[in-house]
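[09:14] KT: can someone run the structure on this one? pasting the chain below
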Amino acid sequence: MRGRVGALLELGIGFHPELTGRENVYLNGAVLGMRRAELRKKFDEIVEFSGNDRFIDTPVKRYSSGMQMRLAFAVAAHLDPDILLVDEVLAVGDVAFQEKCLNKVNEVASTGRTVLFVSHNLAAVRTLCTRTLVVDSGRIRHCGPTAEAIDVYLQSLKPATDGGQDALAGHHRYGSGSVRTVSAEAAPGDRASAYLRSEACAEFRIRYRARERRTIEHLNAGIVVVDCLGANVFSTGTAMVGRNFRDLPPDGVIVCTVERLPLIPGTYSLHVSLKDEESQADYVYNALSFTVVNAGDTELIEHPDPKWGSVAVAAKWAHSLD
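[09:31] RB: done, structure tokens below
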């Protein structure tokens, strides 16, 4: 490493609960390697950034945890380092403060300095980073453009299967196990393509198996579609339309047909839920990863940027003099 290194690894190191916010700014700054003259020069800017100006002369023990974290981040963010190491510390404060933190890190990066940002928040990684490392058990699994790296990371979350009867045996799940999802599949409604098409018909097929190997008197099935950043895009289930299944055989396939898939091109995951009469029988996270493409048969011309969202909305555009 060449140059001054600043690390936002554990906020609040050096804070003393009996000292005021003002005194802790100087104490914390000293621990992080800032000179007193430098702290004095940046003091007003640090306090304004933290949003704690009304309570700067109040003992820190009277602060909420969020106020302490904001003050600590404000001090660390004004180190002006040549290399800034940031490790999972941006989830502090409210949405407005988090945005302020992201802007500050962006500001450091835009001046030509190096930022090493460690996070599982894919939205923040996509916003801040141009190049990303995927690390698995201490080893570099992938190094490249951020979009590529995120795809590699998401694929790594899906356990390898042996292609046996229970293809989802290694997946993260919970439930009583009275009925289990053993596989999930997504396919175009017309089966003419290997990919799902935006705004076209799509089928989600869920193969289930009952533990007791007897007729299932009552079953509520549902799916949740999740985008590449882990946000829920939409969900649907038999309970929503009042059509729960009754007297099903112990083995079978449930088919959910979406007549017009409202997703922009991209990669998505599917969570599957099965409930019996008593409780949650099975809930499988990331049971399936599938790709949606623009096959040229819709009005979508461009490949939208992920920050635009995940839902394709049918809309007409026109010009008016009014």
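[09:33] KT: thanks! Residues 22 and 56 are 5 Å apart (CA to CA).
[09:34] RB: yep, looked fine to me
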